[in-house]
């Protein structure tokens, strides 16, 4: 499983704290550095790849030749399975008919589109580069071009977003040829324009009760709209679950290429330097600046609990067994101390958090931590 981080955006969204630059001055140098890192890290993945994910940032800002050079090298290094999920994150304003045809010709078969809202006032608040009209048009164009794996992001809990408008966002999404939704509550991250605006009194703080209510609305409406709510923030219809993200939640190894990208080999986590210039320079010297975080058994247990409770799949018993008797016993004891035994439903293979408790998943996870 491979993730490639493209750290460029047209403009800064008010809420975003991901690593990106609004200057594309070093774009060609960055692409060359990505290619060098791919070569250097050849032995870290088994082939062929089942998933390639180009994220960011805004990968759709790269032109066809740049994307082709990346994907061709990936295929040469590891091979890409004929049924692999090849995802590209994109913004609606980049997805012209010509661009979509280019992406399709490169073998990209899944788009994750940053819609966020179908209402212009929300997009203005978030400082998004696209319009509400472009949000709808790009999805229809993508389907016409032959993309049948379409995911969109939506944000709820934004100041001024009424429940009625949130419902309309969900219904609009379901009326379009979209088979996957990633829905996130607005969070205030330090050092973002949103955080600064709240401090200055320009924006209201997000309302936790509003966000909780809108999460529950999403849960209740999903079956009617034909979606399965398979992870706290993710919904799919026609079994179009995200292969790439599901692998993260299942604790599978992956390699992350690019500045700020994370990797996990089952034993330790690697984090690349979140600085474009330093990333480029280090690859020119034949290396990639990064830090290693060694994951001990306690951390692996806690991460298993945290991710397992987020999914319909649950905490798998085999994963607990692999951690050892100490952790099996701790889990059993902590589970008995839960206030309501119905919180965790036991099946033959897993312990699954009751969906009506998903709002409280983090707190429940903390009570089960080692």
Short key terms for the protein model shown above:
single chain, about 375 residues, alpha/beta, TIM Barrel, 2 domains, nine-stranded mixed sheet, three-stranded antiparallel sheet, 14 helices, 15 strands
What is the CATH top level name of the largest domain?
Alpha Beta
Strand segment tally: 15
The largest β sheet comes out as: 9 strands, mixed
- The CATH topology of the largest domain is what? TIM Barrel
* Radius of gyration computed on alpha carbons: 21 Å
Cα(first) to Cα(last) distance is: 29 Å
Whole-number tally of structural domains: 2
Strand-residue proportion: 15-25%
Report the average pLDDT across residues: 95
Overall geometry comes to globular
The ordered string of helix (H) and strand (E) elements is EHEHEHEHHEHEHHEEHEEEHEHEHHEEH
Describe this structure in words.
- The protein is globular and about 55 Å long.
- The strands form 3 sheets. The chain has a 9-stranded mixed sheet with strand order 7-8-6-5-4-3-2-1-9. Strands 10-11-12 form a 3-stranded antiparallel sheet, with no helix packed on it. Strands 13-15-14 form a 3-stranded antiparallel sheet.
- It folds into 2 domains: 2-249, Aldolase class I (TIM Barrel); 297-368.
- It starts with a strand and ends with a helix.
- The protein is an alpha/beta fold.
- The protein is built from 14 helices and 15 strands.
Quick recap:
This protein is 40% helix and 21% strand. The chain has 370 residues and is an alpha/beta fold. The strands form three sheets. Strands 7-8-6-5-4-3-2-1-9 form a nine-stranded mixed beta sheet.
């Amino acid at each position: 499983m491979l993730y490639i981080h493209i750290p460029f955006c047209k403009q800064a969204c008010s809420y975003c704290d991901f690593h990106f630059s609004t200057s594309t001055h070093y774009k060609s140098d960055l692409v060359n550095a990505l290619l060098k890192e791919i070569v250097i890290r050849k032995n870290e993945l088994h082939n062929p790849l089942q998933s390639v994910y180009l994220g960011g940032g805004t990968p759709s800002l790269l032109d066809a030749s740049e994307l082709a050079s990346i994907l061709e090298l990936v295929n040469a290094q590891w091979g890409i399975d004929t049924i692999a999920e090849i995802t590209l994150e994109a913004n609606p304003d980049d997805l012209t008919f010509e661009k979509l045809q280019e992406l399709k010709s490169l073998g990209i078969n899944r788009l994750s589109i940053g819609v966020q809202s179908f209402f212009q006032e929300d997009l203005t608040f978030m400082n998004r580069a696209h319009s509400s009209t472009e949000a709808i048009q790009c999805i229809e164009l993508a389907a016409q071009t032959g993309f049948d794996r379409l995911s969109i992001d939506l944000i709820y809990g934004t100041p001024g977003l009424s429940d009625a408008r949130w419902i309309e966002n969900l219904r609009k999404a379901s009326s379009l040829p979209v088979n996957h939704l990633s829905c996130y509550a607005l969070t205030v991250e330090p050092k973002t324009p949103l955080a600064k605006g709240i401090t200055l009194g320009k924006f209201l703080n997000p309302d936790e009760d509003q966000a909780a209510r809108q999460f529950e609305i999403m849960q209740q409406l999903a079956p009617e709209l034909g979606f399965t709510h398979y992870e706290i923030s993710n919904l799919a219809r026609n079994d179009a679950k995200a292969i790439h993200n599901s692998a993260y939640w299942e604790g599978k190894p992956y390699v992350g290429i690019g500045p700020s990208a994370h990797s996990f080999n089952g034993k330790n986590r690697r984090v690349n330097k979140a600085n474009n210039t330093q990333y480029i320079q280090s690859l020119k010297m034949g290396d990639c600046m990064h830090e290693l975080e060694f994951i001990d058994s306690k951390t692996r247990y806690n991460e298993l609990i945290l991710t397992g409770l987020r999914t319909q799949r649950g905490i798998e018993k085999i994963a607990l067994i692999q951690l050892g008797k100490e952790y099996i016993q701790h889990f059993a004891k902590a589970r008995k101390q839960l206030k309501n035994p119905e919180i965790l439903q036991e099946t033959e293979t897993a312990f699954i958090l009751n969906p009506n408790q998903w709002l409280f998943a983090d707190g429940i996870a903390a009570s089960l931590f080692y």
